[in-house]
Amino acid sequence: MSECIQISFAVCRIGIYTCFRALCCKGPPPARPEYDLVCIGLTGSGKTSLLSKLCSESPDSVVSTTGFSIKAVPFQNAILNVKELGGADNIRKYWSRYYQGSQGVIFVLDSASSEDDLETARNELHSALQHPQLCTLPFLILANHQDKPAARSVQEVKKYFELEPLARGKRWILQPCSLDDMEALKDSFSQLISLLEEKDHEAVRM
């Protein structure tokens, strides 16, 4: 009987030691990868509001970006350092000066905008998709303001922007979004992170 008690006590000590090592000796968690992204789109497309919501900032503090701003947007498996560029007419011509070093692109469009603004957004997206510093990068294209009555569907945007023929062979995602559906927005960014990780793995294999 005493032998059984000794064996049980020994097993118990081993269990406590194993738990202690698991809790205290596993070291810090691995660092999340960081990616540098550029975020572009016309004024009023909602770039600043979307990024601020992802960073859990108060909507009362949102001010339209006139030059550029940088936000570190945290996700469970990555940190996105997003350089947001203002979308006014007199700023868009300087966008390309800020493309260097980008690893991915976020393009935000107002799906409920006027025909003229939608045409301008299409031209800017086409220009970005073909720019030498961006053409090989993953693109997340967000059709924002889906909560508005005049919003075009994703299929309408895809057809109007001629994405299938223009972006064939490129890595791109077109997703609907609005501030009212943060889960869908976060899922869109998760898909972008997956594309960024794939590109990283390809670079390692090369």
Automatic annotation (TrEMBL):
The source's superkingdom equals Eukaryota
In the UniProt record, the gene name given for this protein reads ARL15
Q: What is this protein called?
A: ADP-ribosylation factor-like protein 15 isoform X1
Keywords of this entry: GTP-binding, Nucleotide-binding
Report whether GTP-binding shows up as a keyword of the record: yes
- Species of provenance: Odocoileus virginianus (White-tailed deer)
Please give one Pfam family short name.
Arf
